[in-house]
Design a protein that fits this description.
The structure is a homodimer. Chain A contains 4 helices and 6 strands, in the order H-H-H-E-E-H-E-E-E-E. By secondary structure, the first copy, chain A, is α+β, with helices and mostly antiparallel strands.
């Protein structure tokens, strides 16, 4: 295994740019759902666990929640209420079990940074992060970097370069920085590092427009 | 590797290039876990559901599975046994609740294609697919297109162009095709279409090498 890297002991400072997770309520249930997703992958079919029984228990949880849910229109409007950061995206969202989640902070030099360790659900090549998961983390981080930089937009183009495999089970540092604004065209870069080495770089072109929030 | 053709799950014909989901065992539990992930996002904190009770029920499922699991080394070796397609990736894997899952089929013209409808967990802009999720689907699809084309590799570079927002809740057609092999350099393209319109295109450079499978 690799030598421990500095990221594991260096806390990222600066204002938090993504939603703060709560210790109870839906965030706690989502945290537990993340544990289930990982545990199912970890177990597979060879453990003798009563998977049909587990399926029934999980279906009962889903059924109970779905019965209580409001209409999709109401829920979408609720998700997007206000102008602030959202809680549901698949990268940072405390309400989304797909999100690792990545906690991004704004730094005084204009960049954003977060540290995350990814487990089995994010695997592509053996023992390493799926290239598309790196793309997902970076696309989102570049978007947050635009927010921190003062002008946000929608992704028009994103180029990823994979310099070396990105390891699972080790702290990854994900960074982003807006580098230029030319009219409505925003250029932003970012990277994922592990153990001091750059694994993936991203360069994005964003356009200063937003889809309307549902109401 | 056996490649059963399952036309019941999608209108796309041609040999299935990704793992076949089973109706019971871990795949059924993972399907139920997907329902939980979606239901938690759908419910949020406003329904009066007993979220701490749900967290406890989910934690109990995770704890039970984790107790029965073999060591990580054993599990990784098991995941990667043989030369065939895997069951755990975050795009097509029937054992991974992060995967929608996307079912890809090989076509006679050399391309691969799958149809998938994405819900709330995959949201980026309001009512639309997260740009990084489109990147994840396309990176994986290009990899499967390389497999179908006869020479696979690791992603070295991936460029995505976002032509229009990709809708949630509507069938998306995801395609990929290997276009050239020059020594170890493989070039592959793909796109995501909705309602006959191209939403996202991808162009990838892959290098003909693989990380060793754990044993």
């Amino acid at each position: 295994m690799s030598i421990p890297c500095d990221e594991s002991t260096t806390a990222v400072t600066g204002p938090r740019l993504v939603a703060e997770p709560h210790k109870d309520g839906v965030d706690a249930a989502v945290d537990a759902a993340r544990r289930v997703v990982t545990a199912l992958l970890r177990a597979g079919d060879g453990t003798g666990a009563d998977m049909n029984g587990i399926a029934a228990r999980l279906d009962a949880v889903a059924d109970g929640l779905t019965e209580k849910a409001s209409s999709m229109e109401t829920r979408l409007a609720e998700m997007w209420r206000g102008e602030g950061i959202t809680r549901h995206d698949p990268v940072t969202g405390p309400e989304n079990a797909l999100a690792p989640p990545l906690h991004l902070h704004g730094k005084e030099d204009g960049s954003v940074e977060g540290v995350v360790t990814l487990g089995l659900p994010y695997q592509g090549p053996p023992g390493h992060v799926h290239g598309g998961i790196s793309a997902l983390l970076l696309d989102h981080t570049l978007g947050v970097a635009n927010h921190w930089g003062g002008l946000s937009g929608m992704t028009a183009e994103l180029t990823l370069r994979y310099l070396r495999p990105t390891p699972l089970f080790e702290p990854l540092t994900v960074t982003g920085r807006q580098i230029s604004v030319d009219g409505s065209r925003i250029r932003t870069v970012g990277e994922i590092r592990a153990g001091g080495h750059v694994c993936v770089t991203a360069a994005g072109l964003f356009i200063d427009k937003q889809l309307p929030r549902p109401s």
